Structure formats: structure tokens, C-alpha cells
Amino acid sequence: ITALNIDKTGPDFAKELRTNVGEMTKEAFINYASCQTFLALGFALSAAAERGIGSCPMGGFDAQKLHKAMKLPDSEIPVVLMTVGVADDSKQAIPFPKFRFTVDETCVKHL
């Protein structure tokens, strides 16, 4: 949102946000709403982990087929899926040993 004044709060801020969102093209609004969805997804994943519940975000699905299968209204577009559940610790999901990269292998340090 290019003209949004982030220094404002309260009703004026909400009014300005609604105005800017309302002026977006459909494609721009879908992109904006998708970004908001991913913010909520991050919180949901963290909340599940905090409660000891396994979860996994999933993309790469056929949104049109999912839309049809779930009989969603035209105003709703599937963006991401999130599975939740309790892991069966007696079984290893992947038959390979787990490994982690070191911080030096995954992060670039700028001094």
C-alpha cells in the first residue's frame, strides 16, 4: 500500500487502510491478502508448536481443485494448507538420519 501513513492509529488509520485496499486491483488485493494469510499462518504454526502439536505448512496444491472439493464460495481463494496433529514418536517418518546444517553453513555474516 503505497500511500498508507503508518504513523496514524485509530479510526483514521483504519479508514485510510480500507480506502487503499479498496482502490487495489483484484490481483494486487489477492497478493496483499495472501501476504496477510502467511502472517497468520506463521502465528498458527508457532502456537501449535508451543502446545506440542505438530504442524506443517503446505503449498504447491491445485487451488482450483481444492476450491471445488471444499465447495468454497467464489469470494474465497485457497492460499496455503496447514496440517496439524500429534506425531507418533514410535515411528520415524523419514527412514534417513536427521541432520542440521551449522550456522556457518546457513548464514552469511556481514561485518
What does this structure look like?
With 111 residues, the protein is mostly helical. The chain is built from 4 helices and 2 strands, in the order H-H-E-H-E-H. Strands 1-2 form a two-stranded antiparallel ribbon. The protein starts with 9 loop residues before the first helix and ends in a 5-residue tail after the last helix. The N terminus is likely disordered.
Task: Briefly say what this structure is.
44% of the residues lie in helices and 9% in strands.
Let me know the number of strands. Answer: 2
* Radius of gyration, CA atoms, in whole angstroms: 20 Å
Strand order of the largest sheet: 1-2
Note the gap between the termini. 33 Å
Q: Give the integer mean of the pLDDT values.
A: 80
**Element-by-element helix/strand order:** HHEHEH
Largest sheet: 2 strands, antiparallel
Proportion of residues in β-strands = 5-15%
Quaternary state of the chains: single chain
Helix fraction bin: 40-55%
Number of helices: 4
Which regions are unreliable across 5 or more consecutive residues at pLDDT < 50? 1-7
- Class derived from helix and strand content: mainly alpha
Shape, principal axes of CA atoms: extended
What are the defining features of this structure?
111 residues, mainly alpha, 4 helices, 2 strands, 9% strand
Give the topology, please.
Layout: H1 10-22, H2 26-50, E1 54-58, H3 63-69, E2 81-85, H4 103-106
Antiparallel strand pairs: 1-2
